[in-house]
């Protein structure tokens, strides 16, 4: 396999990048894994973890992306994908097909997942509600 000049080798250790706020959702923290820079924006990979108890969730939305997966590393999260409630637990992998309408509405305090999306600068578009959303589980 030949090497290409448009991507770089990347190796990021946990102590090199910390969790920060300021990502897509203010109730999550994000840790950049260096993939967006290494791929010149073709792909982003980051760790996402709970920062605050779920109150309103993400709201109904879709992404303008070619590819997106979520791999749950710790805890759990409940999503609506179209009108289907889906519990995603540690060890699960979800491929979110392009354009699927979804809503992350509940998650555990220890929730942490790996998200990989292409392109790195994917857009999030709010959409009309598909169906009612169950209440989140209160944190004690």
Structure description:
It is a single chain. Helices cover about 5% and strands about 40% of the residues. The N and C termini lie far apart (about 55 Å). It has one domain: Jelly Rolls (Sandwich). It is globular, with a radius of gyration of 16 Å. The protein is an all-beta fold and about 140 residues long. The mean pLDDT is about 95. The strands form three sheets. Strands 1-2-9-4-7 form a five-stranded antiparallel sheet. Strands 6-5-8 form a three-stranded antiparallel sheet, with no helix packed on it. A two-stranded antiparallel ribbon has the order 3-10. It is built from one helix and ten strands; from the N terminus they run βαβββββββββ.
Estimate the global geometry from the Cα principal axes: globular
Overall mean pLDDT stands at 94
Number of helices: 1
Largest sheet: 5 strands, antiparallel
Task: Please count the beta strands (DSSP E, at least 2 residues each).
Answer: 10
Which structural class best describes the helix and strand composition? mainly beta
Could you name the CATH homologous superfamily?
Jelly Rolls
Rg is: 16 Å
């Amino acid at each position: 396999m030949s090497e290409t000049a448009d991507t770089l080798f990347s190796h990021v250790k946990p102590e090199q990048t910390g969790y920060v706020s300021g990502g897509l959702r203010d109730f999550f923290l994000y840790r950049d894994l260096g993939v967006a820079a290494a791929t010149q924006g073709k792909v982003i990979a980051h760790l996402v973890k709970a920062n605050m108890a779920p109150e309103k969730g993400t709201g109904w939305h879709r992404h303008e992306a070619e590819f997106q997966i979520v791999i749950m590393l710790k805890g759990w999260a409940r999503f609506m994908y179209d009108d289907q409630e889906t519990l995603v637990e540690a060890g699960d992998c979800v491929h979110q097909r392009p354009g699927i309408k979804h809503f992350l509405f509940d998650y555990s305090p220890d929730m942490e997942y790996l998200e990989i999306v292409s392109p790195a600068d994917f857009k999030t578009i709010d959409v009309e509600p598909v169906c009612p959303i169950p209440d989140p589980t209160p944190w004690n």
